[in-house]
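Below is the data:
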Amino acid sequence: MPLVLKGKDFSRLANERMKFSVVYFSNGKQRVLVSKEAKKFIGKQKFERELKIKISNLSGTCACPGLAKGLVRIINMPEEIFLK
């Protein structure tokens, strides 16, 4: 049964967001684009190529104690956090 509130079918919108969506901020306001509108937005964006560097040892100050494994990306500018 779809969730309908104030004439909007939120279950349909939620399913569209799960398939393909983009969330971005512009002038301090959050925008959510779904489906074709999201794909059109992504198509207009310029992405930089990822540079792969082999690092054998990484050192630094630990934010919290423990052991962890995972991928590491070097972020030089705050905008690079969201690039993949």
Q: What stands out?
A: The mean pLDDT is 79.
